[in-house]
Specification:
Residues 541-562, 591-646, 664-795 are annotated as: Disordered. With 795 residues, the protein is mainly α. The protein has helices at residues 8-11, 55-70, 99-109, 114-134, 179-182, 202-217, 237-243, 254-261, 271-280, 287-300, 306-322, 331-338, 343-349, 351-358, 363-371, 382-393, 402-415, 421-438, 442-455, 461-475, 481-493, 500-513, 520-542, 547-550, 564-587, 628-639, 653-669, 681-684, 755-784; strands at 14-16, 30-36, 42-49, 79-84, 88-94, 96-98, 137-138, 147-150, 155-157, 164-165. The chain is built from 29 helices and 10 strands. α18 runs parallel beside α20 (461-475), α19 packs antiparallel against α25 and α21 (481-493) packs parallel to α23 (520-542).
């Protein structure tokens, strides 16, 4: 019955978008944009409306429908679905744009590159080769209107309306009856005598020449215009001339034309074509070939079209990672292509892969992810970072590879704003404390301090009060000079996070101790920081009402806006130190802070130099890995005793003799032991921490009339005959921080015990030990008698 009838058009799973039809090929077909009803995927729909009295055109349309449905080739328009009724024909294909419209749009956007044209023509010629050589079919309609471009920029051959068999099974070529298409017919078709000798591909190759001319020069006005190549590239002109030659016999086969153009120096011999050919066969390539290809791919992506990167390269990269076991080599090109994606596309395609990569145990992949985190961190939401990214990243803090530990520290600058309370204030601080206290690499300890200064504003108020002062104080006692500089800059960068009491009682004492640091860069930064804190204290002292305003950030909640100061103060440390980090790690491993000692302050000019205290040779900022400017500055400073104070410091030669005797006595008995875990021999040739600071000075008596520094009364009630108070000053001690905690501040004063007492105590212990050993030896000899030959000596 009639009410059971169904409308096939209404039930068709695709629908037309209500827009004007695009400029389709000349002929019966109209090209429309469409989409799949279920998923909304875009498609192209070719529509033919059956008209009465147009049986010949209807047969041509049905033949094209059948050909397109049965022919499958990567370079031929891909058929998806179709609908055939008494009133219309619908052919659904992949979403494409006619080549003429595509070229016009690209010209308006800046023009089409020769690389794109070379690959497009390569695809059309390859499709013709498939039809002629493999299927024995003549296309008979090669022109601009028969070529379409998909979203990846791939050229597809369509317009199969007038195709016929080269073997003559279906009769001769069908009549077109459309002048716009007949102008591309070769001249030999006008000769009805049949005396012209030609190949089966001759006519299509002539039409290919017309297509090449139109791509570079625009619409073809007449056949005579083919004699002038116009804008056709010189590398393509010889092969183009073969196509449009008057003799059809010499026109090359499509396969040979491709071979000629792919020859060295040919139009189709370029990196873009080679990349596309490799991607087409990537499934059958060896793993070593894939690795090499992906390593070189990122260098070429900048020159490739954006649509090609998004729609052809990206799917292959994702497939290679998911199923091809490509590993870390896909990361660089993957993130490079990701720049072309919208935020929504990035979330859908890249982020799932990135999250999965972080769980990998491949070190190469982990370090590349950390190095390139800046490119994708803005697309990660906080739940993903805290639950799926951070738990895997923190394993890098414990890695035995210094490069991974360094990159993990640096990555915290980007992850900190997205971490929750527990991960940021508890878990991360625990790892930072361990790195700063126990890591054997000085640059990593330095970068840990720098990172803490930059993320200090994100910490909670209680964590800031508990961590920052202790952490930066510990950094100022580090044997690695850049770490001490980073500690000073950390104080300065977070100056607004300390109360006035902390500034006066905790921070300034630490900074004052650095004013006599052996490294001038440390002293310079210490003086700057001291002036800054002093001016802050002075302003509050002058106007106590400013206290509330000055301390407004001390108990404030964490705020991303407070990190600007830290970034500007400590930015140089990340740039300068981290640029040396990998080189330092590779060439000269450093030791943990507890294994080295800090040398004494330099001796000013005119003062007899006391005997230097022997210290283990330690890594120094001076050496072949330092810049030439720093070497020059160090040489100038050492030549003039650093000239950091031009005042007359007097003469300390009276105390020098006693100090010399004490040091010789102590150091002759207590030699610094060599760490079994570190080989320091390579550093001895380059000098130690006191290089450039302690210069030999002649033991000359003071000039007549010169008053000794020890004779001055410095304002105390004691008399001056107690000796010079500076005589008790010694090198800044290298403290052993408590591992896995920020520790408590250790503000020990000057040594209270005299060196003479220490030396005497050590001498007595050695004497007692010697007497004990002699007594034991005598007892053994008396009990056993003389030793026999071959007996084992037990003592």
């Amino acid at each position: 019955m009639w009410f059971f009838a169904r409308d096939p058009v209404r039930d068709f799973p695709f629908e037309l978008i209500p827009e004007p039809p695009e400029g389709g090929p000349p002929g019966p077909w109209a090209l429309h944009r469409g989409r799949k009803k279920a998923t909304g995927c875009p498609v192209s729909i070719f529509v033919y409306d059956v008209k009465p009295g147009a049986e010949e055109q209807t047969q041509v349309a049905k033949a094209a429908f059948k050909r397109l449905k049965t022919l499958r080739h990567p370079n031929i328009l891909a058929y998806i679905d179709g609908l055939e009724t008494e009133k219309c024909l619908h052919v659904v294909t992949e979403a494409v744009t006619p080549l003429g419209i595509y070229l016009k749009a690209r010209v308006e956007a800046g023009g089409l590159k020769e690389l794109e044209i070379s690959w497009g023509l390569h695809q059309i010629v390859k499709a013709l080769s498939f039809l002629v050589n493999d299927c024995s079919l003549i296309h008979n309609n090669v022109c601009m209107a028969a070529v379409f471009v998909d979203r990846a920029g791939e050229w597809k051959l369509g317009g199969l309306d007038y195709m016929y068999s080269a073997q003559g099974n279906g009769g001769g070529p069908p009549r077109k009856g459309i002048p716009e298409l007949e102008q591309y017919d070769p001249p030999e078709l006008a000769d009805s005598s049949g005396r012209v000798v030609r190949e089966k591909w001759s006519a299509d190759m002539w039409r290919l020449g017309c297509l090449i001319w139109e791509v570079f020069n625009g619409p073809l006005p007449r056949a005579a215009a083919l004699r002038n190549p116009g804008k056709i590239p010189k590398s393509l002109v010889p092969h183009y001339c073969e196509l449009v030659g008057a003799n059809p016999k010499v026109r090359p086969n499509p396969a040979r034309f491709l071979q000629n153009c792919r020859a060295p120096g040919g139009f189709m011999s370029n990196r873009f074509v080679e990349t596309n050919l490799f991607l087409e066969e990537i499934q059958i390539k060896e793993p070593a070939e894939k690795q090499k290809f992906f390593q070189e791919l990122s260098k070429s992506l900048d020159a490739f079209p954006e649509d090609f990167c998004r729609h052809k390269v990206l799917p292959q990269l994702l497939t290679a990672f998911e199923f091809g076991n490509a590993g870390a080599v896909v990361l660089t090109p993957l993130f490079k292509v990701g720049k072309f994606l919208s935020a929504e596309e990035y979330q859908q395609k890249i982020i799932p892969v990135v999250v999965k990569m972080f769980s990998s145990t491949d070190r190469a992949m982990r370090i590349r992810l950390l190095q390139q985190m800046e490119q994708f961190i803005q697309y990660l939401d906080e739940p993903t970072v805290n639950t799926q990214i951070f738990p895997h990243v923190v394993h890098g803090f414990l890695d035995t590879n210094p490069a991974i530990r360094e990159q993990t520290v640096k990555s915290m600058l980007l992850l900190a704003p997205k971490l929750n309370e527990a991960n940021l204030n508890v878990e991360l601080m625990k790892h930072f404390a361990r790195l700063q206290a126990k890591d054997e690499q000085g640059p990593i300890r330095c970068n840990t301090t720098v990172c803490l200064g930059k993320i200090g504003s994100y910490l909670s108020a209680s964590t800031r009060h508990r961590v920052l002062t202790s952490a930066f104080s510990r950094a100022t006692k580090d044997p690695f000079a850049p770490s001490r500089v980073a500690g000073v800059l950390g104080f300065a960068a977070t100056h607004n996070l300390y109360s006035m009491n902390d500034c006066a009682h905790k921070i300034l004492p630490v900074l004052c101790g650095l004013t006599v640091d052996p490294e001038k860069s440390v002293r310079d930064q210490a003086f700057k920081a001291i002036r800054s804190f002093l001016s802050k204290l002075e302003s509050v002292s002058e106007d106590p009402t400013q206290l509330e305003e000055v301390e407004k950030d001390v108990h404030a909640a964490s705020s991303p806006g407070m990190g600007g100061a830290a970034a500007s103060w400590a930015g140089w440390a990340v740039t300068g130190v981290s640029s040396l980090t990998s080189k330092l790690i590779r060439v000269h491993p450093t030791t943990a802070p507890a294994e080295t000692n800090i040398p004494q302050r330099p001796t000013p000019e005119g003062v007899p130099a006391p005997a230097p205290t022997p210290v283990p040779a330690t890594p120094t900022t001076s050496g072949h890995w330092e810049t030439q400017e720093e070497d020059k500055d160090t040489a100038e400073d050492s030549s003039a005793a650093d000239r950091w104070d031009d005042e007359d410091w007097g003469s300390l030669e009276q105390e020098a003799e006693s100090v010399l005797a004490q040091r010789v006595c102590v150091n002759s008995d207590h030699k610094p032991s060599k760490s079994p875990e570190s080989d320091w021999s390579s550093w001895e040739a380059e000098g130690s921490w006191e290089q450039g600071w302690q210069e030999p000075s002649s033991q000359e008596p003071p000039l007549e009339g010169t008053r000794l520094a020890s004779e001055y009364n410095w304002g105390g009630p004691e008399s001056s005959d107690k000796g010079d108070p500076f005589a008790t000053l010694s090198a800044r001690p290298s403290t052993q921080p408590r591992p896995d905690s920020w520790g408590e501040d250790n503000w020990e004063g000057l040594e209270t015990e005299s060196r003479q007492a220490k030396a005497e105590l050590a001498r007595k212990k050695r004497e007692e030990r010697r007497r004990e050993m002699e007594a034991k030896r005598a007892e053994r000899k008396a009990a056993k008698g003389p030793m026999k030959l071959g007996a084992r000596k037990l003592d």
